[in-house]
Design goal:
This protein has 5 helices and 9 strands; from the N terminus they run ββαααβββαβαβββ. With 176 residues, the protein is of the alpha+beta class. The strands form 2 sheets. It has a 5-stranded antiparallel β-sheet with strand order 1-2-3-4-5, sandwiched between helices. Strands 6, 7, 8 and 9 form a 4-stranded antiparallel β-sheet that branches. Keywords: Transferase.
Length: 176
């Protein structure tokens, strides 16, 4: 578990499904991430995160507010699986629409980066997103991440012709 003044990043629980499905089935949240997800798809996604955490000791963790213990999304680090971040420490976040614009993504990401510095040997943290995802790109820049234009790519799991296929790549060198 990672705690900040307003947030807790924690392992996934069985009772997270309804709240996380509400986030992943919101067309506004998913507009720059991919198609809205069914309840079964979200359950499978949570199961993948639980398996990653069991295998690697980290994943995109459940993200909740401390004041009301409400699940508002996810944030954490995985071993990248696509393009230039494959095998690297890839940071990511996804928040409920009601949690946007309050600094939660940046706060959780800073805590995740600090966790990576203490717990993983990686010299850098990486992030990717669809080129059109200006909100996530703004968070990456607030974190001090640098755009790596030579490493931008078409995401192989996004259909050709989709505006979400072109991806940008960012990285942050970790002080050691």
């Amino acid at each position: 578990m990672i705690a900040t003044s307003r947030l807790v990043l924690r392992s996934w629980r069985g009772d997270d499904l309804d709240a996380f499905h509400a986030i992943n089935s919101d067309p506004e949240v998913m507009a720059t991430l991919g198609p809205v997800m069914s309840r079964d798809e979200v359950a499978a996604l949570i199961a993948r995160m639980q398996a990653m955490e069991a295998r690697d000791g980290h994943c995109f963790w459940a993200l909740e507010r401390t004041d009301d213990a409400r699940l508002i999304g996810w944030c954490g680090v995985i071993r990248g699986t696509a393009g230039p971040v494959e095998g690297k420490a890839e940071i990511g976040w996804r928040l409920a629409r009601a949690a946007w614009g309050q600094g939660f993504a940046s706060e959780a990401a800073v805590a995740t980066i600090e966790w990576v510095q203490r717990n993983l040997p990686d010299p850098d943290v990486w992030a990717i997103t669809a080129t059109v995802n200006t909100r996530s790109r703004a968070v990456m820049e607030r974190l001090g991440m640098h755009r790596r234009p030579g490493l931008d790519f078409d995401h192989p799991s996004v259909p050709e012709g989709s505006p979400l296929r072109p991806h940008v790549t960012y990285s942050l060198e970790l002080p050691r």
